[in-house]
Amino acid sequence: MALHFELVTPERLIRSESVHMVVVPGTEGDFGVLEGHSPMMSTIRSEADVEIYVTAGAAPEKIKITGGFAEVNDKGLTILAESAA
């Protein structure tokens, strides 16, 4: 089973794919999201890295983002970032 993950900025859709896990840099601390995670929303720390694990045990791919929100729902994880590099 996999988690549907989307990373979106005001300019464009950066990523939309199925992954194993994503570690989100929330303002209250980092949190990992796997498939089946409870629904929640969080603000995101500015100038932080999102860590994307495509498969279990894989090295994370890191994408630097600036601010925004993360939403986990029954469809997966969506991060709405101010910018991403």
Mean pLDDT: 96
Name the helicity range.
Answer: under 10%
The termini sit apart by 28 Å
Shape: globular
Task: Bin the strand percentage.
Answer: over 45%
Summarize the biggest pleated sheet. 8 strands, mixed
C-alpha Rg (nearest Å): 11 Å
Oligomeric state of shown chains? single chain
Tally of helical segments = 0
Q: Please mark out the parts with pLDDT under 50 across 5 or more consecutive residues, or reply none.
A: none
Count of extended strands: 8
Can you describe this structure?
The chain is mainly beta and 85 residues long. It contains no helices and eight strands. It has strands at 3-8, 13-19, 21-26, 29-34, 40-43, 48-53, 61-73, 76-84. Strands 1, 2, 3, 4, 5, 6, 7 and 8 form an eight-stranded mixed beta sheet that branches. The protein is globular, with a radius of gyration of 11 Å. The mean pLDDT is 96.
